[in-house]
Amino acid sequence: MGLQLVSSKKPAATEREFEWKGVLILLSLLLLLGYSWWKNSDSKNYPFNENSLPLGTSDFIEAMKIKGKYALAPSYAGYIEWRLSPDIQIHSDMQFPPFHELDFFEIHKSMLSKPAHQHFVEKYKPDLIGVRKTFDKFPTLLGKNSPYVPIFFDHLMVLYINGVKYPRIKEKYLLKHINPYKPDGLKPGQAHPAIKEIERMLNVTDNIPEVKLTLLGYLVEAGKMEEAKIHASSLLEYDAKNEKLQFYLAKIAHNEGDYPRAIQHYNASIDLSVEPHLAQQLMAECYFHIEDHTKAYELFTAAIKLYSDQNPKLLHYYLFAFSSYIVGDSTKAKRALAMYRILDDDSDPELSKRADELMKILEDG
């Protein structure tokens, strides 16, 4: 009897069957893992970095239960649509068709050009407009009879509403004292009414840390240090490496006479700043108070731009002169005092008297 050849087809089929079973098992495991993740995840999370989203203004719209048409940059509109629809209708988002480049051009230019803005408003009649904070010329596009008024802002956007359609919201939240595009540029004497406006905003949502930081600056400016310390503590938990926060912490300590702690925070602010001159001057003042005149002299020399200082502070010119005198640099001392005399507005007679006395010592010496 000859040898019978065994066919190779059956083992091959068995191997393929084994491979398919392995693939099915793997797919089942992946599906099981995916389902488990989905079931246990928070379905409310929007899949982007929160810092890139207009959270505060969206919180406001939601809290006020506003319904209407919302014109804003398409890059934010997807988030708004996901979060606030069906109450809020958007003009366009980044999904297209049906939208094309003319739609994007139309809404973008409506924030930058007066004719484009008028065209857009007449065509679409939005109830709300969300303007990027970088578009700080937008208020100039609004005519005297425009119904749109600013009522809220966050780190990305300024929210305008049609005040005719929402009169109660306008009456309560209209921003009269704050420039939402440049909230730190507060005019003298405006701190107290500005504080009230921001506190009204924070009563709606505290999901606006950048606005809290603005409030902290206003409180420091108004001398409300105890309230300022409360907000500073909460902001430290959010972002301790914030230049402005460190600067305000320094001013609080400075005001309390805790000069070593003030110096610590001024140093932190300077390390984070691209324009540290003011913090350097204030830190020099602290060194002067603890009688480290060498360090005060070095910092005043670096920080006071004698020929280009846009906001000269008389006290600092005197302290610079005195520190220069103590370390033996009479030339800088005389020059600082000469500039003090040019700037002297008689607002501090006692300081002016001390400056005259120091100049006499230098001239007699």
Notes on the protein architecture:
The chain is of the alpha/beta class and 365 residues long. The protein is 59% helix and 7% strand. It contains 16 helices and five strands.
SSE topology:
Elements: H1 9-40, H2 55-63, E1 68-71, H3 74-84, E2 88-90, H4 101-109, H5 114-124, E3 128-132, E4 148-153, E5 157-162, H6 167-173, H7 191-204, H8 209-221, H9 225-238, H10 243-255, H11 259-272, H12 277-289, H13 293-303, H14 314-327, H15 330-343, H16 349-364
Strand order of the largest sheet: 2-1-3-5-4
Helicity, as a percent range: 55-70%
Number of strands: 5
What is the residue-averaged pLDDT? 86
Shape: elongated
Distance between the termini: 132 Å
Order of helices and strands: HHEHEHHEEEHHHHHHHHHHH
Q: Stretches where pLDDT falls below 50 for ≥5 residues?
A: 1-10
List the main descriptive attributes of the protein structure presented here.
365 residues, alpha/beta, five-stranded mixed β-sheet, 16 helices, disordered N terminus
